[in-house]
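Quick one:
INPUT:
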């Protein structure tokens, strides 16, 4: 019976499941309010009119549903930056909670480096991990930003440029222009969604048809990690380009990271987050705070959204870096 239900649910789309849940919740609210009304009349020892109780319960249910729907629309469309403000608070709370848990974990530096390089997806070559602590971003890095398989697994290096249109050159962390790409799920949390300043709003990147940028993340850390160590970059700004402009991935003499993510709702454009290398550490000499950013037994990863690319996370909310 349970297997039958699982198969049945798997064949229903996300939107259809959401609609069914909303209908069920509506009737549950109505039933609860009806029982409350009935109980109140019995306690007061008044004459019971089931029709009146049902009518009042229905009105309250409809009112609550309208308020709930209005709140949902405001949140999803980020009206008055409701979603952005809520997510900023949640991210600060999650980061603080995660930092506290790190203090009680005894994972060694070697253990954490092995978690980072754990090969969790067959058919892809694990490069390491990327962490942007201020945005609660922690994603595995694989080797194929040009396939659904690669992007559905997390972040991937992107290496097709004007100079190297076929991507023959394999980028190296800490050297030259290291390009990274991942999905923007327009939820402020999954993939590189947290790099867009306001969810579901083109501004400040696209204004009256003009391509702009933003400095709201300037100075924040971008950390890359692989088997050799941790690469500490600092964000220098964000720019906006069309989806055809691959020159942003051209080789450079200076060590930098170039992160590519879609803009929402104008998905023909790409937000480019630029970072310059500040320090390179081995796993032995890296500050413990930076090492802990990759402790997958304690840190949650954010690669998967159930409605788009369901899968098992590699962090504390899933495989725990292969320790589970």
């Amino acid at each position: 019976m349970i297997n039958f239900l699982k198969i049945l649910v798997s064949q229903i789309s996300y939107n259809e499941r959401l609609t069914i849940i909303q209908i069920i919740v509506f009737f549950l609210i109505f039933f609860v309010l009806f029982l409350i009304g009935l109980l109140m009349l019995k306690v007061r020892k008044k004459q019971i009119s089931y029709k009146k109780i049902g009518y009042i319960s229905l009105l309250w249910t409809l009112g609550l549903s309208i308020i709930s729907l209005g709140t949902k629309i405001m949140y999803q469309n980020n009206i008055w930056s409701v979603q952005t403000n809520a997510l900023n608070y949640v991210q600060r709370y999650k980061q603080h909670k995660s930092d506290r848990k790190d203090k009680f974990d005894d994972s060694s530096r070697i253990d954490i480096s092995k978690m980072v390089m754990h090969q969790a997806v067959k058919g892809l070559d694990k490069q390491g991990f990327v962490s942007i602590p201020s945005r609660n971003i922690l994603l595995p890095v694989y080797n194929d930003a040009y396939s659904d398989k690669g992007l559905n697994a997390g972040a991937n290096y992107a290496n097709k440029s004007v100079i190297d249109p076929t991507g023959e050159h394999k980028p190296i962390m800490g050297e030259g222009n290291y390009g990274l790409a991942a999905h923007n799920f327009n939820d402020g949390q999954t993939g590189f969604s947290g790099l867009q300043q306001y969810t579901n709003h083109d501004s400040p990147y696209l204004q009256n048809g003009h391509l702009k940028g933003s400095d709201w993340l300037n100075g924040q850390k971008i950390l890359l990690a692989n088997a050799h160590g941790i690469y500490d970059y600092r964000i220098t700004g964000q720019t906006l380009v069309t989806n055809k402009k691959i020159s942003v991935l051209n080789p450079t003499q200076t060590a930098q990271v170039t992160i590519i993510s879609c803009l929402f709702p104008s998905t023909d454009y790409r937000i480019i987050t630029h970072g310059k290398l500040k320090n390179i550490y081995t796993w032995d000499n890296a500050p413990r705070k930076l090492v802990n950013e990759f402790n997958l037994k304690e840190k949650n990863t954010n690669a998967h959204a159930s409605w788009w690319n369901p899968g098992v996370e590699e962090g504390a909310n899933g495989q725990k870096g292969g320790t589970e």
